[in-house]
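Researcher: Please translate sequence to structure tokens.
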Amino acid sequence: MGHPSFAPGSEARSGNLTSPIPSQQPRGKATPNDRPQPSNSQISNSSPPKAQTSKPQILNNRYRLIKVLGRGGFGVTVLAKDYQLPGHPECVIKQLCPLIQDQETLIRARYRFQREAKSLAILGGHAQIPLLLNYFEQKGQFFLVQEFIPGNTLTQLVKLHGVWKEAEVIRFLQDILPALGYVHQKGVIHRDLKPSNIMRCSVDNRLVLLDFGAMKSALASEETSAQITRQFVGTPGFAPPEQQQLRPCFASDLYALGMTCLFLLSGHWPQAFPWDKRRQSIQWTELISVSQPFELFLNRLLVPDLNQRYRSVEEVLNGLKNASREPIEVFESVANVMPKNDFADLQNCLHAQAPQRRYLAQKRPDRGR
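Model: Translation complete:
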């Protein structure tokens, strides 16, 4: 299935990617311009009108848009084909949709776009994060091009195969935590971890982190951070209290990962669990049964108080060792694999990703779901 999709087969025909699907008038309320006006020849010969074919939309004189994959608060995601490469491989194009009100806003948006593209290029050096292939600006619109990864999201896997066992969730954590640790090592908070943003690749069975549109650099200046976090970013239920209060941190991603584990174990979204008003936390043990060590582990992931929650991926991995009945393999730290380079030039960063990704991919064992 690849990246989560909807409206399969719908063509992106609009002149603006923010509205990839043609707008439709309500049934029975066609405007005069919408009603076909038959010509004299049509009336006399009663010949059926010819079907109108829309010209495929091409971006950057290179990418032919195929169908919409998703829409969100940060823009539109579309499946496309790259007609400048042999075989016209598929790719994913994400359009960022900043609110441009004046020239000064456009300049700030362009700076932020280039900074986020640079961050994505660095993150794409990991085999569990989609590779950034290109980025460009067209008519004041900002576009990111990433590799297309076939597979199913965790949401789709639970729907197809049912809920997971405790041992399967532990293996899931073992596989995804090194990737999340790599993201945090680069100073980035994902801010929107959830089942629909984690995918199992159908080609090599690896887990992949998706949708970094909500990411936030923990190294941003206070002034820049204040501008970016004026409103809540994330998904209700998966975002912890500090994130809802516009103060996300690395531990916020760990809370969201814990909520994702509850979804895998039960198939329930956060809103389905009873709420303890006194503790300001969910009571998930009423709906899910796991071993006591794993219950204690999940409770610490999900505690609302930052001072009591796991604060880093390393702490989570150590806690997982104690909660698991089987030995936990810890892969070599990605800090020892990736070159320590600031990538001052984004194009150099793009070219540097592929060799490192191949090295990382070779080190990962093949696993079940």
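Researcher: Any highlights?
Model: Confidence is low (pLDDT under 50) at residues 4-16, 18-46, 219-229, 330-345.
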